[in-house]
Design goal:
6-stranded mixed β-sheet; 2 domains; alpha/beta; about 425 residues; 14 strands; about 45% helix; Arc Repressor Mutant, subunit A; globular; 5-stranded parallel β-sheet
Amino acid sequence: MKRYYSDYHFFYIVKLIFHVNIARMYLRDVTYHIEQRLLISPVVAILGPRQVGKTTLALEIAKRRDSIYLDLENPRDKQKLSDPEHYLSLHSDRLVVLDEIQCFPDLFMSLRGLIDTGRREGKADARFLVLGSASNALLKQSLESLAGRISYLQLPGLTPLEIGGQDQNDLRKLWLRGGFPNSFCALDDDASNLWRGDFITTYLERDIPQLGPRIPATTLRRFWMMLAHVHGELLHAAKLACALGVSSVTIARYLDLMSDLLLMRRLPPWHGNIKKRLVKSPKVYVRDAGIVHHLLQIRDYEQLLAHPVYGKSWEGFVIENILAILPPYIQPFFYRTAAGAEIDLLLEFGPNNYWAIEIKATQTPRIAKGFYIACQDLMITKRWVIYTGKDTFSLGRDTTVIGLIEFMQHLKSSIK
C-alpha cells in the first residue's frame, strides 16, 4: 500500500533535516582550549552532562589529525581494550579518543603506565582525549592515577556567542530551550520540550544509577523539581529535607551528586572581614534554563513571561553563560548582607579587584539602593547591569547597563 505525503509533511521533513544539520555546525569556544591542552598534556578530559555535545566536538577535533575513536559503551570497542596497554601501545603515535570513560575507570591506570613508559624511553607523549559525564568516581580515579598528566575542561551548553545570537529572538530561544544542542535546534518549542522530558527521564532511570548511588527515580525527580522551584534562591537544606521526607545528610548527598554531574550549581557567597553580617548559605541554580522551564511546565515564551520564576530564570541564564567563558583564575560569588545589601554576581579578578553585576529581567532596569551599598562595602568601581535589552548606556555612579551578548564580548576581550 502506497503512502502519500502532503506538501506540509514534505516541508516538515526538509525543515527537520535542515535543523539537524545546523546543530552540527556550531563552533564551540572551548575547541581552541582543547587544542592547546593537547599540545602540553598527554591526557585531556572533556567533562559535561550527556547530550551537551562532547562526542561531536571530539570527532571534529579528531578529523584534523591521525586518530582513532573508541566508544566504551560499545561492547565491540570495549572488547578491543581487554588488554588495554597492548592495544593502545599499537596506536601510541595517534590521538586516541575514549568516549564514556566512566564505563571503564580502571583504564586510567593503563594510561598512566603507557605515558610513563614512553617518557622513560624518551618517546613523545601519547595523546588521549577522554570524554565523560562528570562524577565523583571519574574525578577521584583520574586524580589518583593521572595526577600531573591530565588536564580538565568542562563543556557547557551552547552560549549566545556560539549561536551567533545577535538577534534577540535567538537569545530568547536559547533562554527558553536551554543550551543542549538537540533542545535548542529542535523543530519547534513542543519538540524541544519533548526532548528535554526524554533527557530527564533517561538521566533518572539510566545514567544517574550508573554514575552514582542507587536512588529511586521518583525521589530524584521530585528533588530535581524542588531545585527548579528554589532556582536562584538561598539553599535551605533542612526545608528541602522536610519536603522530601529525608534527612539533611541525604539532601547533601543528592546535592553533591547533581553538582558533580554538572546539572546544578552552588554559587558561593563572598566572605571577608568587612565588619558586617554576611549571608553564608550558597545560592542554588539548575544549570540549564531549558531544564528549569520543563520541570516547571513552561512550554513557550509567553508562559515564561507570566511565571514567577521569570526573573530568577533570567538571572541563572545570565550567570551560567558568563561563567562558561571565565578562565579559572576569576572566581565567582554573590554578595549579601543581613541588612539586604546585595550583588547578584561578583567576579573576583584578584585581591581587591572586583566586577559587580546586577541582573534585571526587564527592558527598563532600576537599581536598588542595596546594590550601591554593597559596591561601597567592597570599594567596587566596575559596576554592570545586565538586562534583557541590547543597547548599552550609563546610569551614572560608574554603572553601565548592557545586554548579555555585549557583556560577554566585552568580558572576553578584557581577559585575553
